[in-house]
Amino acid sequence: MGDELGTLVQRYESDNGRRGRNALTLLLPGFVGILLGVVLAIPAYKSSVTGDDFVPSVVLGCGFGAVLMGCWCAWLFLTRSDEAFELYVDGLVHAYRGKRRVVRWEDVADLVDNGKDTALGRAFGGDVNLRLKLAHGKPVVITGIVDRAAHLTMAVREAIEKGNRSEPA
Fold first, then answer.
1. Which of 41, 56, 67, 115 could cross-link with 129 by S-S, CB 3.0 to 4.6 Å?
2. Where are the domains of the chain?
3. CA distance 118 to 123
4. How do beta strands 108-113 and 8-13 pair?
5. What CA–CA distance (Å, rounded) separates 119 from 82?
């Protein structure tokens, strides 16, 4: 299916084990935070007249947030175990669960870089986050979960900026 895109330059696979570790890293403290928040909230909410329920509310909110993010990571872990990006001379193929999305360079309307190069971003794969907005259809997102994601995003940028040709360094 990548034949119309020319020669395969490189294949980049997602580190699904890292996704699973991220899910556990978020779910376990999240559930502990919810439990601790409930334990702190019961006495605080019982006599809450002066606003002494701030700390339990923050702990509960952080716990629920971590659980929601952990559930999202777990969902991706379960549904995208074989995710890969194939970089071709004239485009990119995003494949997972037996599906393949072919993206020609001329179909990319915009590139949006949402990566956050922080310690937390690097730990959870948010240091690289390149969204390829397409002229038609859903965008394709390359995150730090992909092995050598920085190299892939650099090659994609170069290919689009060089008149839709890809020869990564």
1. 115
2. 3-13+88-161, 17-79
3. 8
4. unpaired
5. 27
Tokens matching residue 147: 């092995």
- Percentages (nearest 5) of helix, strand, coil residues in the chain: 50, 25, 25
Residues forming beta bridges with residue 85, ordered by sequence position: 12, 94
| Cα separation, 130 vs 103, whole angstroms | 14
Please state, as a whole number, how many other Cβ atoms lie within 10 Å of the Cβ of residue 6. Answer: 13
Are 130 and 141 in contact by the 8 Å Cβ rule? The answer is: yes
What is the H or E stretch that residue 16 is in? helix 16-46
Q: Of 14, 4, 1, 3, which Cα lies nearest the Cα of 106?
A: 4
Is 59 a residue whose pLDDT tops 90?
A: yes
pLDDT tens readout for residues 130-161: 999 998 889 999 999 999 999 999 999 999 88
Q: Percent of the chain scored above 70 by pLDDT?
A: 91
Residue 26 confidence (pLDDT) above 90? yes
Helix (H) or strand (E) holding 100: strand 99-104
